[in-house]
């Protein structure tokens, strides 16, 4: 993994990240468009972390911090490169970012139906909290 580089996405990376998510991420979000990812990048340029090897995009995670809570979204690794430590390295980088920002607990958005991902999250020390249900309301027109 010495040749793996993890760092924040640049503005020029955003379109390729959206394309990457189409094949590597589970499910879609209302924010999975260029305007949504540009807003994220403008608001917090360090939140979208990319894993690369020789310039090739291998994985992503969004490590957002709102000043109170640390949130993880879009942990995605190229399907042919899973179980090689890329996701673990991305989570370690996200957790390091949170610690630098003063975060004390991270939560992750993980689809219930994405059962292949559950063991990876558990191995990283995350677990579901049964007492919570996510309530959502789409905004705008």
Largest sheet: 5 strands, mixed
Number of helices: 4
Kindly state the mean pLDDT as a whole number? 91
User: Using DSSP, what is the number of strands?
Assistant: 5
Categorize the overall geometry. globular
Query: Uncertain spans, ≥5 residues at pLDDT below 50?
Result: none
Helix content: 25-40%
State the secondary-structure class: alpha+beta
User: Whole-number radius of gyration?
Assistant: 15 Å
Strand content: 15-25%
State the distance separating the first and last CA atoms: 45 Å
Listing every helix as H and every strand as E from the N terminus to the C terminus, the arrangement reads EHHEEEHEH
Strand order across the largest sheet: 1-2-3-4-5
SSE arrangement:
Elements: E1 5-8, H1 14-24, H2 34-43, E2 48-53, E3 56-65, E4 70-77, H3 86-101, E5 106-108, H4 118-123
Parallel strand pairs: 4-5
Antiparallel strand pairs: 1-2, 2-3, 3-4
Tags for this model:
141 residues; alpha+beta; 5 strands; 30% helix
Task: Provide structural commentary.
- The chain is an alpha+beta fold.
- Helix 3 (86-101) links the parallel strand 4 (70-77) and strand 5.
- Helix content is 30%, strand content 22%.
- The protein is globular and about 45 Å long.
- It has a five-stranded mixed β-sheet with strand order 1-2-3-4-5, with helices on both faces.
- The model has no long low-confidence stretch (mean pLDDT 91).
In brief:
With 141 residues, this protein is of the alpha+beta class.
């Amino acid at each position: 993994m010495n040749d793996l580089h993890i760092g924040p996405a640049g503005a020029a990376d955003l379109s390729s990240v959206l394309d990457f998510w189409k094949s590597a991420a589970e499910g879609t979000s209302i924010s999975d468009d260029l305007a949504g990812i540009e807003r994220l990048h403008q608001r917090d340029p360090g939140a979208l972390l990319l894993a690369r090897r020789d310039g090739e995009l291998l994985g992503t995670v969004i490590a957002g911090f709102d000043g109170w809570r640390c949130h993880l979204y879009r942990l995605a690794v190229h399907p042919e490169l899973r179980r090689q430590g890329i996701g673990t390295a991305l989570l370690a980088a996200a957790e390091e970012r949170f610690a630098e920002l003063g975060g004390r607990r991270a939560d992750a958005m993980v689809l219930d139906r994405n059962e292949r991902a559950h063991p990876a999250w558990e191995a990283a020390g995350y677990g579901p909290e049964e007492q919570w249900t996510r309530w959502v309301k789409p905004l705008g027109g």
